[in-house]
């Protein structure tokens, strides 16, 4: 009857570890641990017939580890998790390439939900909507419903300026780019964080100068970006965008007038350090 070392050498003869005495020793310890006075389950020779198991054995040998059943299971699970993470990362890159399309749809659905129910949709509800699912299928591919959250569509669309939300349930709403789209280049095209900072800075300066917050009409007509473009088309537009600005905490409302919000104050503090 062949020894464990003979069996190990025979199996490794067709691999990169042929004639590698160290690898033969490691594998033989896994095949026949009792020969080394080790109490653990032996590795069945037939296990190497499975491609994933065989790959795990070779990877463990390359690391200088004994390919025990427990080690193989652990490594196989780790490799599967890594492959899944890489797959999700690839899908995420596809989502990012079409984020404006996703953001536009998410913002429109959120705005419609507010109009119909007076509250924002849940993340699950909006991401599982038929329109979003169809767009995912078209731009990314087939993604199981339970895996949609791993695309980080809400977070990506939020960073892109299409939607806003905070920790409050039902806060998800359409943001700057959705509202500004109807006015084209007649209003500022600056990124959402720049817009928020400009609003907070204007409010802080006016309060410091006048001792009280400005009216919404003043905010709408006086505030401009570094290129001289208005941030808001008119007072009605400013009041409409109050929702996302307050949700993102760039501003807050006190006695029906705008004041810098928590996030706005933090941004101003960083600017002035």
UniProtKB/TrEMBL annotation:
Top-level taxon of origin: Bacteria
Protein name as annotated: Uncharacterized protein
